[in-house]
Amino acid sequence: MNAVPLALYAVALVAYLWHFVRRQPAVGRTATTMLVAGVLAHTFVVGMQTMDAGHVPVIDASSAISTFVWLLALSYLYLEMTTDERAMGAFILPLLVALQCIPAIDPGIEDRAEMLRGPLFGIHVSSLLFAYASFALACVIGVTYVLLFKEIKAKHLGFFYSRLPSLQVLDTMNQRAIAFGWVFLTIGMVVGAIWANQARGDSAVDPRVQAMSLQDPKIAVALVCWAVYSFEAFAARRLGWGGRRTAYLSAVGFAIVLLNLVPISYLLPNSHNF
Hints:
Number of strands: 0
Structural class: mainly alpha
Number of domains: 2
Helix content: over 70%
Largest sheet: none
Order of helices and strands: HHHHHHHHHH
């Protein structure tokens, strides 16, 4: 089922790239329409998987990536509709298509364990994925900021200058995405700790829960991610950091997020898989 959203995202990607280069309004509207169609198809897939497993599909690594892509697409659509700016689509859609290829090729199987059906677990994983989607947006906004800054610094106002929002707008968008993501990352980690503590108190404790500790790669990397974004939020508000510094930190932070989403989930068996 994941192949249908992937195909629609791929068509939207072509349209967004065409619109970015040619700046034709009709092509831009087509790009948005195809992205909306992809999100609707993806919503149906996620809904069916949720009904089948009894919880949001985030246990298996492929399912978690698919849900992340869905949330990222929704977040970008909200950004586009509130700013009436489609330029970011040319940078967001390549990430959507690349990541959605994983669940399309390897759908995975959702765990139906009873301990995963409670509200705390749902809040935990949903908050983390919302945070990661916000950080992805911040990373892309940061990349576009750097591209535009270099063009302005070289006093060659051409390709990016005529297609991207101003540096001030990009910096504001970046900082808001970071703040939004940090809040959800903090909520997800706190609720996750509460859930894990309660799960250990059950009579029949899943060995995966017992193994969860600071030595778990996913937990360790999540803490590093929280530290990076906490410093970025603090530096932006208290030290006056912004612009390129914030943009570069956003890229570093999202690289850590991707490390947790893909390599650790697939290559390190001693990390918890939910």
